[in-house]
């Protein structure tokens, strides 16, 4: 049976999103579907894994949780037929467990992390920056594996205040008191396959 075509000119909701079964990953922003980039680069995946490992180690046994993509986040939840903004950040931290349901996160996570790839950089730095600020995400990190930097945006009075960290820095996680991410480990240049 042929799948129905996704009409880009129409407004779509989470209910539509749940019916799409063509093997493609998408986000919906204000009703408009965005096809996600092909499989991420090796640098992207290595960076994501190292970040997730540090967050996960700190949160082990705690009520707060970290998730990695693909993981649906409905930023402005109402119901499946009217939710029109669904994103999949590379990593999210959720401190309020009541936001978790069977399909992902209903509401703004406390931290969202996007790892830049050449095909997504503009979208992550512009579209998602404004979207995450509007949704009230308290901490938004933009991680650039090529430049080996993290731009940490902390929400204060409805605006993001940014601090940039380099590959030798330790970046504090503001929503998780006591956690600083060792960026020298995240951006290490070692041969990932040379230590068996």
What does this structure look like?
By secondary structure, the chain is an alpha+beta fold. The chain has one domain (14-186): tt1808, chain A. The protein has four helices and 14 strands. A hairpin with a 2-residue loop joins β7 and β8.
Q: How many DSSP E strands?
A: 14
Strand pairing plus helix content: what structural class? alpha+beta
Strand content: 25-35%
Fraction in helix: 10-25%
CATH superfamily: tt1808, chain A
Order of helices and strands: HEEHEEEEEEEHEEEEEH
Largest sheet descriptor: 6 strands, mixed
Using the 3D structure, state the CATH architecture: Alpha-Beta Complex
Uncertain spans: none
Side by side, the strands of the main sheet go 3-6-9-10-11-12
Count of helical segments?
Answer: 4
What is the CATH top level name?
Answer: Alpha Beta
How confident overall, as mean pLDDT?
89
Give the overall shape, derived from the CA principal axes: globular
Span between N and C termini? 47 Å
As for the CATH topology, it is tt1808, chain A
How many domains, as an integer? Answer: 1
Key features of this structure:
196 residues, alpha+beta, tt1808, chain A, 6-stranded mixed β-sheet, 4-stranded mixed β-sheet, 22% helix
Quick synopsis:
The chain has 196 residues and is of the alpha+beta class. The protein is built from four helices and 14 strands.
Please render the helix and strand layout as text:
Layout: H1 14-19, E1 26-29, E2 32-35, H2 42-59, E3 65-68, E4 72-74, E5 86-87, E6 91-94, E7 100-101, E8 104-106, E9 111-115, H3 121-135, E10 139-144, E11 149-156, E12 159-165, E13 170-172, E14 180-182, H4 183-186
Parallel strand pairs: 4-8, 9-10
Antiparallel strand pairs: 1-2, 3-6, 4-5, 6-9, 7-8, 10-11, 11-12, 13-14
